[in-house]
Amino acid sequence: MLNLFWEKKRIVVKDSDIYIDNLNENLGKAIEMEFVIALTFREVKVYENNTLIRNFRIEALDTNSGLSDQFLHCSVRILTNSAVMVDGVISKSRLSIPGRTDKEYEALRFQPFFLSNADEKNIQLFGKGLFERGLHFAGSVTPKDVRCICVCDYCKQSFTIQHFHAGFSEVQYFYSSNSREILIVPYDAIKNIPQQLQEIIDLSLLNEVESKLPKTIDGSFRYYNSFKCPHCLSPFIDFEANKKLRPKEYYGNILVNHAPRYWTEPNES
Ligand SMILES: [Zn+2]
User: Quick count: other Cβ atoms within 10 Å of Cβ 221?
Assistant: First the structure.
């Protein structure tokens, strides 16, 4: 009888934790709600009916390191296919956010995920690119001041990445063996360098290009090196297993607060 008068809320935020009810009448129910989350603990935990399903650590930019007394103004969306999408803007105020063009504008996009009734879709995304994972969208440029918080498919720890649009800059990027480094090379610096969205990659020409690249701290720069989890070094964007993905992943990714390495002619430096 109680259900006639009381419906359990689909999303509740308590302190910095998001609680999602995914039972009974709420299963498959789409909703979008906005919340202000205190970043006191620099993490946002997501629970599905009291089971912890995601823990997003909020890594601060070096330029704004005092996050503990700041707030995340965020939207939490659940789609009918049980996908959960969270994104927001960091603010020093609980009541307002910086404007899109303000110098201090910082936005976060959490890696979308599926609730337990659609968990097989989480597994299908292991090793996939950031477009398939819902962190970037074809035809819409993700602004540079949006940083993404990813969750490793294997160790489940989160890590924050920043990105650049390699196609617009007319550059190719190469991750080092453990993606501790990323090298950025202009198209015109090395003959036959693969361009973004170039579907046919000639492996012998690629070998020649790669032979001209500098040494790295953790192995070698290669076109098909995966972007790896910084905690356990499992492939996150697994280019070695999904080579066809590589030309389409035209955003280069850099761990937060790290700097890319730029190509210099061998006789410079
Ligand atoms: Zn990991």
Answer: 21
